[in-house]
DNA sequence: GTCTATACAATGATAGAC
DNA sequence: GTCTATCATTGTATAGAC
């Protein structure tokens, strides 16, 4: 405003506008990718929703592909962090698994559109969409589950007869079903109480031999 | 060839060519939809792979959308038929569920590209791709599983303490995990032996109270 | 950093001959 | 039923002013 020398304005405005533009673009991208899909989403519509212009998008992300990978990268980062917090918890294996499932449930609930875009990309075509290693997230989740199961076995809470890998597979399946029910339009989401009940169902079959459990017979 | 009257050739060739063209188009469509996705797939490439021309596609299917829905419809029909055969089987609930899972596993194995297209459509965007009721397949599968579970409960093979719906949810989860591992590039498919072991894992927690089972203690 | 204006390829679909 | 030729539209991405 009051600066005399042209070009020397060390204003904070540029950088501030920069971040606003960037985040506006990211939010708009998630919205359009979710509704139209990556391939059918046009940069025209994205910048329109974001309230910016095309060159702004290419300045910040370079391409439509990098716009998607940035969205997925940030989501993956956040989910991984939450997963690590969950696995660091104390308690019985059952309590920890329940907490992990509840955390994921809550996280998905907060970011339904992003999770939908992630699923669409995961199940989408190989060509056309940029490569993104989703198995990273999947492997991390399975590793977290398996670790809790193994520690539960070591603590004598879970039968060692069943391999931790098999148990983890069942848990992963339940998590998957609940996630799908949460994000897909055609289903009404399943409540947390049902989730806990189902986990209990699995556990009753994974517990150590009934005779050793003590509390069991009623 | 030797016909005198022009246009009066009641040859069988046209109809025969018709069906060949149609099925060639369907196979090419699955191939391209699988690799590029519905939105990014171009009718140009599809007809090129099929060895026909664009107007032939529009003559048989009317639009790109109907080409996809036809593919999915036929797949859904075949899968549903196999599901009904599986649920009609005799034996214990465990045997029937194992058989159902094995049948699905085999069916998916035979039609990996179609199953991938189905998943991509299911998890894909609402707009852009033609509407297709996949919950139909999902609901049928869940109904089949639940029915077997309920009959298992009635026969005294499965504990009535757990709701059939909850048990079905766990089975659906396992089926889902195995299906994903089968069709997705990033995973190596899980073998049938593992599948049986995992089902056994679930069952050991769903069986009636151990004391009543007789065979149980070793 | 953000704009206007534009380059240029590829798309789904059709008209009309045969 | 299947073809050749073509249309109008939309796509991503960029050059250059400010």
How does this structure look, described?
- The structure is a homodimer of 218-residue chains.
- With 218 residues, chain A is mostly helical.
- Chain A has two domains: 9-62, Arc Repressor Mutant, subunit A (Orthogonal Bundle); 72-213, Tetracycline Repressor, domain 2, CATH 1.10.357.10.
- Chain A has helices at 13-36, 43-50, 54-61, 64-87, 93-110, 112-123, 135-154, 164-183, 192-204, 210-213.
- Chain A is elongated.
- Mean pLDDT of chain A is 87; it is low at 1-13 and 209-218.
- Chains A and B meet through helix 1, helix 6, helix 8 and helix 9 of A and helix 1, helix 6, helix 8 and helix 9 of B.
What is the secondary structure topology, with strand pairs?
The structure is a homodimer of 218-residue chains.
Chain A: H1 13-36, H2 43-50, H3 54-61, H4 64-87, H5 93-110, H6 112-123, H7 135-154, H8 164-183, H9 192-204, H10 210-213
Chain A binds a DNA duplex (18 and 18 nucleotides) through residues 14-15, 17-18, 21, 42-44, 52-56, 58-60, 63-64.
Summarize the structure.
Chain A is mostly helical. Chain A has helices at about 15-35, 45-50, 55-60, 65-85, 95-110, 110-125, 135-155, 165-185, 190-205, 210-215.
| Low-pLDDT stretches of chain A | 1-13, 209-218
Here the CATH topology of the largest domain in chain A equals: Tetracycline Repressor, domain 2
CATH architecture assignment name of the largest domain in chain A: Orthogonal Bundle
Question: What structural class do you assign from the helix and strand content of chain A?
Answer: mainly alpha
Largest interface, per-chain counts?
Answer: A-B, 53 and 53 residues
Helicity of chain A, in percent?
A: 55-70%
Looking at CATH, the homologous superfamily of the largest domain in chain A is Tetracycline Repressor, domain 2
Kindly state the mean pLDDT of chain A as a whole number? 87
Work out the count of structural domains of chain A: 2
Distance between the termini of chain A: 80 Å
């Amino acid at each position: 405003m009051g600066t005399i020398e042209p070009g020397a304005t060390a204003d904070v405005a540029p950088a501030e506008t920069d971040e606003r533009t960037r985040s506006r673009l990211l939010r708009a991208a998630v919205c359009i990718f979710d509704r139209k899909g990556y391939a059918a989403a046009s940069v025209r519509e994205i910048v329109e929703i974001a309230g910016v212009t095309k060159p702004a998008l290419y300045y910040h992300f370079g391409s439509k592909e990098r716009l998607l990978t940035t969205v997925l990268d940030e989501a993956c980062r956040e989910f991984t962090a939450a997963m690590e917090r969950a696995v660091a918890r104390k308690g019985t294996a059952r309590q920890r698994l329940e907490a992990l499932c509840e955390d994921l449930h809550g996280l998905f609930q907060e970011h339904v559109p992003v999770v939908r875009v992630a699923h669409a990309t995961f199940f989408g075509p190989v060509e056309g969409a940029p490569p993104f290693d989703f198995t990273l997230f999947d492997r991390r989740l399975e590793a977290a589950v398996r670790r809790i199961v193994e520690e539960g076995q070591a603590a004598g809470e879970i039968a060692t007869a069943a391999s931790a890998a098999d148990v983890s597979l069942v848990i992963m399946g339940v998590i998957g079903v609940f996630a799908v029910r949460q994000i897909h339009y055609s289903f009404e989401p399943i409540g947390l109480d049902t989730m806990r009940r189902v986990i209990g169902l699995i556990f009753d079959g994974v517990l150590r031999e009934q005779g050793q459990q003590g509390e069991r017979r009623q």
